[in-house]
Every structure is written in C-alpha cells, then in structure tokens.
C-alpha cells in the first residue's frame, strides 16, 4: 500500500520558511527565498487567498508577491495588519492592507513606496498563468471578481537590528505579545530583545542562553516568557529575571539530561477552562543513533510550570510545532517532511502523513478560530497549513468526528436492558 498523499495547495518559485494566517482577513502569508546567493532564486513574501471548495478541499490564489531584495524571510509574526519578518540579523516591519477594487476607487494610482498587485494578475496555484481576465477568474463567478478585485498593498515601516552575532547574525524567532504592545526577538547570539510596539523603542534585552535561541513564547498575560536554546535549557523568565529552569527528564528518571535538547515551546489555552493555561515543549535527541530514539512532547501547567504529561511522538526528528487557537490541537512537522496533528489533552496522535513534503517542514499554522477562519474551516474539526524547503504549501484537514447525543446513548442502553429482561422471561418463565 502506497504512502498517503496530500495535494499541494500552492507551490512557490522559492523555498518556503514561514507561514502565518491573518485572523482578521483570513489571508495566508508565506515567505522564503534563496537568500543573498546569486542563484536566480528570488526572495519574497506571498499573500494568498484561501478558499474552501467542496466539503473538504481547498484552493489558494496568489494575490500579491512582495519582493524582499537579497534577504530571505526566515520567520514571521503577524498582528493587526503588521508583518514582522526576520531577515538575516534584522527584523523588518511591513504594513499590509487587504481591500477590494470598489473600496479603494482611484487610490491605486498613488502607489508611493508601497508594492501593489491587483487581482487581475492573480494565478491559481499549480495551474500556471492564464493571463488577462481568464487568470483573474480561475474559479468562481467572473462577475463578482470584476466588481471586487482583490488588492494588497505592502508598505515598509521600519527595521531594527535584532541579532548581533559578529560572525553570522541571524534572527531565529519573532513574536508579538498577545496585546500587541511588545515585539520579542531571539537569535544566534543568545539574546532576547524586547521592543515596544509600534514605536520599536527597545525596552530591554538580556542573554537568555549560551548559544542560539531556538524558540520563545510569551504567556497571554505577559507574566512569563519561555525560551528554548541549543544549550539544553528551557527557561521561564519574569521580565529579564530567571524564574525557573524546566527539567522535563525528571518525569523519566532513566533519561540522562544531555541526551535530549529542547527544540520548541508554545503556550496554549485549555478548552472550556477560561483561566487554565498550558505550555507545550518538544524534545529531540541531541545525537542520532543507528536506531533513532523517539522525540518527546511534554505538557506543563502554564502557571506552576510542573510537568503534567510526557509522551513519545515518533522517531522522526521534529522541526516545527504549532498550537491551535482553542488549545485543542498540536501540530508537528519533521525534518523528513512528515506532518502530524495531536490531541493536546492526551498527546495522542490524531492525524499523520508520512513524508508529506519532500524535505524539512519549516513552519505550521492552524486556521484561526475567528469568523473568517471558521468559514474557511468548513465542516472540518480543524485544518492546518504546512510549508517546507521543497517550496510546497499544503493544508491538512481533520474531518469532524462522528458523535451521538447522550440521550440517544441512554435510550439505546434502556432498550438493551428491556430486551435482555424480556429474553430472560421468555427462556425462564416466572423469572420476574
């Protein structure tokens, strides 16, 4: 039996490193490129329109391509119409606007410093360019496309030096705080830098790790910052002061501390528990053996930071982690191109496609729980986007699991009991 195949949603003309979904507009934003090397591979940020076609199928339309010159975007964060992009050792902020032709009128004539592309040059991913009106109406009602042509404008706001590694500066992660008042960056120099947003005035910075920072995340109330480094440490900070160092291996006493290192961290909500919070971390083997050991997922209490559950998640090395808005699902990507979705409560695997991509899965993003996200999600319980170095963007959907109302279950149980009693009365007269 052959491997399960997931059709490509979109294929870019360059390697993809990051993907985000804007919760307000539903725009899918992907980015990557060939870097500064003169290979002819461009560097760009692509804005896609995602649509649900049928019950479980999706299509994506390229609305706009924003050229990023000689720098590839390696990581991104999106908040309130602003895109924070990690390019080499800098964090570049860009403002994007999504509107329709009839809304903007004659404003398109004044381009300024913005990069603009109208929907008349849109193309359907995987079907090539069709040109003219045919390209604009790759699917859907042509009259609607003529009346409301999609329009994206991107304007550069500012950029800051976010990594000061003297050898090879590289920003590895960027996050907005939940209330969009702060912007946090981490890079190869081991420093966390916290910037006020939107002024970009540096609030403070501190050395969080000896060596590269792999990941960071800020709790919803901005009380705690969690960082993951290549120095085997996962640290919880209050401001720039160390609050606690997490020790996942204490839940597995036979595990040596230096056998594994932390790879990613994410805070997540708890469904139906408003005040509860969870932290999820991924641990990968520090060294690979001929018989590869498993990677591990750990769930922590997001306030006391005590481990709640640790579970193996396969022998393929994990390369990316995502958490759904509701905190119900976890997404994992691997260096071999596989994609999986886990249930956050039990850390059980719900969905898995082996080598869905041809190479490293670089980023994942669940469709948001906003109204726009729910409309795109359709009849699926959840849907997650993945990108990889193979230039492909895919969508992984989990159909709603069938469930029965409790009254129907109780009614059936009652019928069974009555049936058993009648059968016993028939076989043994006078039983009752």
From TrEMBL:
Its main location: endoplasmic reticulum. WD repeats lie at residues 174-196, 206-238. The keyword Acyltransferase does not apply. Keywords: Endoplasmic reticulum, ER-Golgi transport, Membrane, Protein transport, Repeat, Transmembrane, Transmembrane helix, Transport, WD repeat. It is found in: Endoplasmic reticulum membrane. It is a single-pass membrane protein. The chain crosses the membrane at residues 329-347, 406-428. GO terms for molecular function: guanyl-nucleotide exchange factor activity. GO terms for biological process: endoplasmic reticulum to Golgi vesicle-mediated transport; protein transport; regulation of COPII vesicle coating. InterPro entries: Sec12-like (IPR045260), WD40/YVTN_repeat-like_dom_sf (IPR015943), WD40_repeat_dom_sf (IPR036322), WD40_rpt (IPR001680). The keyword Zinc-finger does not apply. Residues 103-148 are annotated as: Disordered. Residues 103-113 have a biased composition (Basic and acidic residues). It comes from the Eukaryota. PANTHER family: PROLACTIN REGULATORY ELEMENT BINDING PROTEIN, PROLACTIN REGULATORY ELEMENT-BINDING PROTEIN. This is Prolactin regulatory element binding. It comes from Seriola lalandi dorsalis.
